[in-house]
């Protein structure tokens, strides 16, 4: 969201519109609440699937999702919603997690689907998508960042807690953008399946990273990075 001062037409300020009214307008536009963003990477899935519908969670992946759901529930927070990628592995992960958070609404979106956000720097030899993917996926993932990662609306009175279930590339790009790091460095980060990344967005727009890719709640033999 934009700075409150940018939302006011200062040209309309006249002798009749003094400092007190200007301050009132600014206060009306300012965010008052903090947003807590929990970015969850989907659980382990079947890499042999040819189409998205075939890339379902493995038995271990389902266990990971149960562990992630249990961890989120144990935090004792009042989650407002779960927004998830429309891809099969993210949808299945969401369904399992949501069993631990009854009553929390679920929203599916194509914006959070996996893709190639931006050409990584330095380049890597093991992953080289077609150049067109960066243009197609990059615009969509950037749109996801702008749509979902922002300070609270001025009308929001209480702090909010939102869960986003999506993919490693999307999460890594969002973290870099949110922290104002060079987004080309996204591939230097690593995320386990079912991991929890916690971003905090203060009313003044300042962003803090509480945790990155946390899987400390999983037994060592349940941790994967596929």
TrEMBL record:
UniProt entry tagged with the keyword ATP-binding: no
Organism domain of life: Eukaryota
Main location group: mitochondrion
Keyword presence, Mitochondrion: yes
Places the protein is found: Mitochondrion outer membrane
One term under GO cellular component: mitochondrial outer membrane
Protein name listed in UniProt: Serine/threonine-protein phosphatase PGAM5, mitochondrial
Organism: Ptilonorhynchus violaceus (Satin bowerbird)
């Amino acid at each position: 969201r934009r700075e409150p001062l940018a939302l006011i037409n200062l040209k309309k300020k006249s002798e009749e519109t003094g400092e007190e009214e200007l301050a009132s307008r600014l206060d009306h536009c300012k965010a008052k609440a903090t947003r807590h963003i929990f970015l969850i990477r989907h659980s382990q899935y079947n890499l042999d699937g040819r189409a998205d519908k075939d890339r379902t969670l493995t038995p271990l992946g389902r266990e990971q999702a149960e562990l992630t759901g249990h961890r989120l529930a144990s935090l004792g927070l009042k989650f407002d919603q779960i927004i998830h990628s429309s891809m099969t592995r993210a949808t299945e992960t969401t369904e399992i997690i949501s069993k631990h958070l009854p009553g929390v609404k679920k929203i599916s979106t194509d914006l959070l689907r996996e893709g190639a956000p931006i050409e990584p720097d330095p380049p890597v030899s093991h992953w080289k998508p077609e150049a067109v993917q960066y243009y197609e996926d990059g615009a969509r993932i950037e749109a996801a960042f702008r749509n979902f990662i922002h300070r609270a609306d001025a009308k929001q009175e209480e702090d909010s807690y939102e869960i986003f279930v999506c993919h490693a590339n999307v999460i890594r790009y969002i973290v870099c953008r949110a922290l104002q790091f060079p987004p080309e460095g996204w591939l230097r980060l690593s995320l386990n399946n079912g991991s929890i990344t916690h971003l905090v967005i203060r009313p003044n727009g300042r962003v803090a990273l509480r945790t990155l890719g946390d899987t400390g709640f999983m037994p060592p033999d349940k941790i994967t990075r596929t």
